Every structure is written in structure tokens, then in C-alpha cells.
Amino acid sequence: MRRALRGAVTAAVLATLLAAPFAPASAADLRIANGGFDSGLTGWSGSHSPGGVDAAVWDGRTTARVTDADPAAAYGRESMPGLPATAGTAYTLHAEVWADSGTAHLYLRFRDSSGRLLTGGANASATGRRWSRVTASGVAPTGTATVSALIYSGVADVGTAYWDEVLITKNVTDLGVQIESSVPNATTFAGASAYAVYTGTVDANPQLAVIDVATEQVTRKITIPDSAATPTVGGWAAATATDGSVYLGTYPNSKLYRYVPGQSTITDLGRAEGGYSFIWDLEPGAGGKVYGGTYNDGRYFKYDNGAFTTIGTVPIAAGAQYVRSLAHDPAANATYLGTGTNAALTRYDNVTGQTDSLLPAAYAHNSMVGGLTWTGGRLFAKVDGTLLVLRVTRDADGSYSATTDAAIEDVDLHHSPARDGKVWLVKDGLLHSYDVATASLHATSVRPGLSVTGYTWSGGTLVGLGAATDGTRIFKYDPASGSWSSRVVTGTPVLPAAINALGTGPDGRVYTGGYLTGGTGVYDPLRGDGDDGLPDTPTRTGLSQTDSLLAHDGLLYIGAYPSAKLYSHDPARPWPPTLRYTAGEAGSRADDCEPGKGPPPQDRPYALAGGPDGTVYMGTVPKYGKRSGALTVWKEGTAGRTLCVVPDQSVVSLAYAGGKVFGGTSTRGALGVDPVYAPGASATLFSYDPATGAVRRHPLPLTAPKAVTALAEVDGELWGLAGGSLFTLDPARPEAITATRLFADPDYAARSSLAWRDGVLLSVAQDPGHVYGTAGDQIFKIDKSTRAVTVLLTAPGAEGLTADGFGHLYYKINERLYRLATPLP
């Protein structure tokens, strides 16, 4: 397993942390044993004068009661033995206390390996007949071996205090993996086994699982090798060659791998030519050959006898970035190529090099042709949401053309090889058969309950393997009898999923959404376990890739890719969330916010904001090959609507301020647009008036900004980040914008993804004098009065920002969640 570079701190830090350098982050939460006094005073040793402390229930809580009636005595209890601590590391201690009378004190204590108390501790105190949170912070002095908490009533103090929820954290905590995945991205079959690819992360290699079809058991798991220079994260392509070898195509290094069934290792065959990043599909050819297609140079290639060969032109179809799907006709030695992002379907003769375009004209405005299968003498082509069944014929002039036998909507990506004149597929969740001879579709009552990544036939039984909410499932159906089964395959690889989005829910927990494979992690601040290699709570399934999170009116709103789906979840109710709106179903694939036309279907919901009337606003990046993002407006009891706001630009940040919704745009369109950034365009700020529906643009006093990646309402003002600049304005006078340069602009040419989601601005209730933010691997705070910036942390790959109820900050690096403790000013 690879391990990415951890977050080394290289910039100025908070004043209380400057007393000593950062210690390396290490495993997960520090948990004070019995910090909530649920087990009485177990784990809390006597300190100072005997007595004075007992266990008591107060205000419905289990507490430690400190009773001090003697002004000449001191009473207290210390959490002993202490927790492991490192000299030079800052620690922050929190506790809740009800000071029924007098003053209550909380101390942070450091001891050496012999238990001797060292100097350098810190303390905090509280008064008042209510629950209050007290915080003490300090840097561990030289010689520190342990850290502990002391609840205390000192000499000259008199009073009674009730203590609860004593929690501690160090300055930087690696909270580890938050989300796990156990579903395949690609499947092929060889002999009596299924071969399934399980995607990993930058830190964790993907794996190949061998699954016995008859027993439905995993018989072998093999880690897919790579190198530090060209790490392999995952794969979407798998095929079985005519010689029985299994081939895998991966990303982001465009590598081809071969596995010989029965062996214990996988062979790395190298990169499949060029500088592209994905092998999207593989198809077997005669004599053990394998054909493949790539992103982002639209290349069609062959692997034969140890050598890669590029076939035809690059790209294989004019303007293609994706060769998204392949189908091979072995009798004609012809390969069908599905390309995008302007959809095209090409027949390529591997003998003569002749190319013929087959896509019906009605689908030319679509973005992608995927899920190609040549079976039963027909070509099955998935064009966005439609499955076309095409009859390919040779014309009198020697060219080839296609006639559409059927166009089937709402069909899953994969479909079976033909058998007895029928092809099997899942439509609207139900298994259907398609009769090739009559071009008719027939539904069964069978619900397989999985997204199939590969089909085969085992005798007369249809077998499908794929992803379900509860893991990997294998599906079997006997067409003769109608009997069927769908079972979870146990023992499949369980791999971490990279964190794609994070946010704090209305319940105070930190939610994380998984990249590519989906899944949701839930972390209870300062109450996690001590293992940073496993999630603190079981991964919640049922959602695809999460792009944004918003706590609003007691609900958690979730923006998910693909098709820009908006979900809501009440933390008090069972998971999964409720689907509220799908912006991918809005608009027309033929439109791109041209004058007089509406938005294209939307795909990536990077921005969410809430209005005071319960309305939720969603800003999006469009579907592949389009430039115009949109603003979605949704409220309970309404159908919701998706609106064009700034043509040719995506909407990547939102904030509600001064009675209007403000949005920030990016000049980067969807994947597949060329050039990546709209020529001559400048990102801008716009406002949407919920009362009138009016949209106004507010140009920024900056030179050709690429993106406005963060917006936030701050004390009635609107604050935003555009590249390395901060801008602020009064929502009542949006034309008067003040801009301040904070940092150099990101390198958008090298890292175009930054133009979608680089920045965050965040207010933290515990620190009303500052705004916190992140941009370009840095976490910083801005003084509200002076606009002075203090960089708190710089860590390669650091992204995202949210805060817990203690005021601490959370960010992510790949699949790992980190906490940066922020002691109060």
C-alpha cells in the first residue's frame, strides 16, 4: 500500500501553537477514558484533599460533582493514567460544567514517563448555573510523556460544580479513513469465475477479486501493482482475451495489466502509449489481441504480442477526447467505437482501416456513446440515457450504415450476450428481455437489486455481477423456469474511498462523501476511535459521488453526481436520504444557454445555499461537453426549476445575503470542452432576486479571473474568493466591490480542477473576529477588521473546510480526514 505525503505544516500558525513546532499527526482521536462519567469516577484518580468529588446525576446527565465547602482545602480528580503525548505539541481540552455555586476550574496537565507533573499546563474557569463549555490549551513541555485533565476547586474556592463531556485533541489530528467501498467498477468472466476490479485511492492500491460463480465465494484477492512515479488508483475496464488471459485497464496512468487465471500475481504491461490518463474500455480480438480506448486524447489502440500500437488517427474521431466504449465483431474483424464528448459512433475496419459513422442524426447533440455491445448480429449502443439497438448493413458503395431497430429509455449501462435470440437488460429496476428478431421488449417481475458491471451465461443461467447498496452482489436468472437469486458476495475487497466533499450537519457531526464509488462517512467530533485505518462508523450506502453538503433548517442537504441530484436528510430519521430534485433531467441536450434557449442538463452540484424561507439553491457544472452551468431553485412543495444565469460559465459557489442569492462562476465548462476555459471570458459574480427572478451580473475589479470558488455571508456583507484575491461588498450596493490580493493565483493551467472547487470561506462562532478559509493547499484566517491574513497550515493536497461545535477545523487529503485545533483567541 502506498502512503501519500502527510500534511507537513510549513506556515505560520495560531498564536497559541507558535510556542513549539508541530509534531507529526498520528492515529486518530485521543479519548479520555470515561470522559462522560457514565461509569462513575472510574478512570479518575483522587487529587489534592481527600473526598469532595463523587458521581451524581444532574440535569439528566451522568456527572462528576465537585463539592467544596472548605475555603482552606482543594479538591479535584485527574484522568489517570494520562494519554500519550509529545513534547512540543499543542493540546486543547474541552469540558462542560455547571457551576451551581462558586467557580469551577479545568486544568490541562503534562507528566513525564515517571508520572512527575511538569510545568506548561493551562487552565480555564467557569461560573454560572447553566451548562457552559470551558477550554484550556497549552503546549507540551520538554520531557512530556502523557497529557491528562484535572477538574478542580482550589484553595479559597467554595462551591459546587457538575462536570461532563471531558474531551481532548492535539493541534493536528489525522482522523484517518472515513469511507469504505466494496463494490466493483468493472467485471469480466473467464471459465467458471468472475474477475472484478475494486477501485482504491492515491494511498491504497486497487484490487482484483476472483469470484467462483457456482459457489459465489471469493477465491482470491490480488493487489494491482504500480510505482510511486505512476500510481494506479482504479480501473473501469476489464476483458477476457481469446487465450483466457484477463486484461485490466486503469487510471490515472493509462496502464494495461494482464492476469493469468490461477496465478498469484498480476503483470504490469506498461502505459498504453501517449500521455492520456484513462483506459475506459477493453475488447478482445482474435489471436489473444486486446483493443482499448482512452481519455483524453481519444485514442484507439491494440495490444498484441507484447506491443502497443495506436490504430488510425489520434483522435480516432474528429474532436473526440473519449473513446468511452468498444464493441468488437470478430467475424468481420471490425470494432465499433463510442466517443465523446460530442457523441459519435464509428465502425472501424481493422483490416482496411475504413471508418464509417453510424450514429443516428437525432443523437448528434448528445455527449457520449457508452455501453457498446455487439451481440446477436446487432449493435447495442447506450447514448446517454437511451439504449439504441442498431442493425448494421453494408451499402452498395462499400460503406456501412445503421438502422435503428429500437430505442429504449432508462436502461442500465450493461446488457447480456445474446442467447436464444434474446438480450437481457435492466430497465427501471426490472429485468427485461429484448427479442432481436421481433425488436420487442418484455418485462419480468424480477428486481436484481444491483448495478451490473458484467454479464455471462453459465449453462442456461444468466449471471450478473455488480454493485449494490450492501456491497457486491451476484445475480442469477433461469429464463426457462423464471427462478432467480440475488445474493451478497462476502469477502470481497474493502478499500478506502477518497473524500470528495465534507461538511458539518445540523446534528454537529462531520459528514464526508466518497469520490467515484460514493458512500457517506459520519464522524462525531472528538469522539472517534483510536484507529485511523478504519472509519469511525460504518459507511452509509445508497448515494453516488457527493459534491457538496449543506446544513439548513435542521436538515442536511446533499448534492450528488451524476445528474446533479439534490437530496435531504433528517439526522433523526433513518438513512438513506430523500431525493428531492434532479437537475440532470432539466433542460435540453441540444441547448447550452444560447440566446432564447434554456440550460443543458446539469451534472456536478458544487454549490449549495439556503434561504430564510426554506428554499435551497444549487449551483452546477453541466453535463459532459457543455459550458453553461445553472442555478437550481427548490423548495418543499414545489417542482423546482433550473435556470440559465451566466451562459458559457459554470456556477461553483453560492451564498444568501441581503435578501438575494449571490453566485460565483467558473470559466471552466464541463469535462470534454475544448478549450478547457471559455475563450476571452472572465469569471463573474451574479445575483438572483427570489422575489422577481431577476439575474444581475456584478463584474469583479480583477484582471480576467478564472473562477469565483467561494462565497459567504459575513456580518451582513458578502465575501468571496477569486483565485488568490478576496473581494467584499454590501449586498445593498453590489456595484461597490473592494478587492484585496491575499495570495498568488492558483496554477489553473496545471490544475484545472481548482477552477471548480478550490476555495472555502467559513465563519466560526467561537471566533467572531475572523473568517477562516482554504485555497491552494493552505488553511488561513482573515482578520475581519484589518483583512490581515494568517496562514495556519500548508499541506499538499489539503482541500475542503468545515468546523465543529468546538470551533475546530476539518479538511481532507485524499481519503483521510484531518482536524486542525483552533484555540479561542
Automatic annotation (TrEMBL):
This protein's record includes keyword Ion transport: no
Domain of life: Bacteria
Family annotation (InterPro entries): Galactose-bd-like_sf, WD40/YVTN_repeat-like_dom_sf
UniProt keyword list: Signal
Identification of the protein by name: CBM-cenC domain-containing protein
UniProt-annotated stretches for the region Disordered: 578-604
Leader peptide range in chain numbering: 1-27
The organism of origin for this protein: Nonomuraea zeae
